[in-house]
Amino acid sequence: MIVTTVTVRVPAKVNLQLSVGPVRDDGYHDLVNVFHAVSLFDEVTASPADALSVTVEGPAGVPTGPDNLAARAATLLAEHIGRRPDVALHIRKDIPVAGGMAGGSADAAAALLACDVLWGARLDRETLLELGARLGSDVPFALLGGTAVGLGRGERLTPVEVMGEFHWVFGYADGGLSTPAVYAECDRLRAAGEQDSVWPRVSDDLMAALKTGDAEALGRALYNDLQPAALSLRPSLGEALAAGRDAGAVGFLVSGSGPTCAFLAASLDHSAELAAALNESGRFAAVRPAVGPVPGVTLL
Ligand code: C5P
C-alpha cells in the first residue's frame, strides 16, 4: 500500500511539578518534572512533496522556515534513515504559541511519527524517543503522553499511573514568553537570593494525589519553580492567577515557563463554572477547558 498523506494528533502538556535544579555545564537545568498531557491538540499532516515545506493554520508567530521544530524533526528523521526530507507539513495549531504548554515540541513529536509512517520507516519507540530528545527536552513526553516523571533535562521519562481523569481550565495570554528567558530569570532570582535553590525530588503528596484521583489533593500539590520568574517577567500573571483562585479553582499555577495559566477544577461541572468565571474576569485572551491525562501522539 502506498501511503499518500498521514495526519497525527498531539496533545499539549502542563507540568504538575516543575522543580528546577542547578544549571549544568551544558547550560540546561536538571529537572524533576511531572508532565501531564491534556486535551488541547495540534494536528500535523505530512504529504509527499518535491521539497520540505511547512504551512501553519491558526495563531500567528509560528516560524515556517527550517527553524520550525516540525521541519527539524522531518530533517532529523530523514538523515537517520538516509533519505531526502521531501515532505509538506501542514500544522493545525490549537496549542498556544510560546505559551508554556510545549506546542512546538508537540509539533516536532507529531512530525516524527507522521514522517515515520509516510516514509514507511517504522522505527521502534525507543529510537523515536531518542530522536525526539535531540530536538528538545519536551519532545519525548509529547510522543508518550499520559502522565510521566521526567528527569535530566526532562527527557528521561517514567510513566505514572493516574486514577480517572482531572478537569482543567487553561487561561491563554496575549503574547508568549521565551523559555530560555524564563530559565535565565529563574537563575537571576536565585543568584540575587530571592528564590531558594534545593536539589529537587518528586513530591510524595503529588504522587499520592495522582494515584487516588483526588483533585483537591492534586490542587494543593501543584508546584512550579519557574512561576516566580514568569511572574517577574509578566507581572500581570499575578492577577490572572488570582482570578482563578477567586473563582474557586482547587489549584492553580503557571504552566511550564508560561504565560498560560492552569486552573484545576473539582469536577466536569465545576470546570464549566470555572471557565465561565474566568471568561467573565477579562484577564485572558482565551479560556479553554480540557481533561488530562490523554495519550501522546496518535495517528488519525
Ligand atoms: O530543550 P529545549 O530546546 O526545549 O529547551 C529550551 C530552552 O529551555 C533551553 O535552551 C534552555 O534555556 C531551557 N532549558 C533549561 N533546562 C532544561 C530544559 C530547558 O535550561 N532542563
Descriptive report:
The two termini are 17 Å apart. The protein has helices at 69-81, 103-118, 125-135, 139-144, 179-191, 204-212, 215-221, 227-233, 237-246, 268-281; strands at residues 6-23, 29-48, 53-57, 87-92, 147-151, 156-159, 166-172, 223-224, 251-254, 261-265, 286-292, 298-299. It has 300 residues and is an alpha+beta fold. Helix 5 (179-191) packs across helix 8. The protein is globular and about 55 Å long. The model has no long low-confidence stretch (mean pLDDT 96). It has 10 helices and 12 strands. 35% of the residues lie in helices and 28% in strands. Bound molecules: cytidine-5'-monophosphate. Cytidine-5'-monophosphate binds next to strand 2 and helix 5. It catalyses: 4-CDP-2-C-methyl-D-erythritol + ATP = 4-CDP-2-C-methyl-D-erythritol 2-phosphate + ADP + H(+). Its EC number is 2.7.1.148.
- Termini separation: 17 Å
Computed structural class: alpha+beta
Ligands bound here? cytidine-5'-monophosphate
- Give the ordered list of helices and strands: EEEHEHHHEEEHHHEHHEEHEE
Query: What fraction, in percent, of the residue positions are helical?
Result: 25-40%
Helical segment count:
10
Strand runs, count = 12
* Major sheet summary line: 8 strands, mixed
Model regions low in confidence, pLDDT < 50 over at least 5 residues? none
The value of Rg in angstroms is: 19 Å
3D shape: globular
Mean pLDDT: 96
Beta-strand percentage? 25-35%
Function: Catalyzes the phosphorylation of the position 2 hydroxy group of 4-diphosphocytidyl-2C-methyl-D-erythritol.
Active site: 13, 138
Pfam family, one: GHMP_kinases_C
EC number: 2.7.1.148
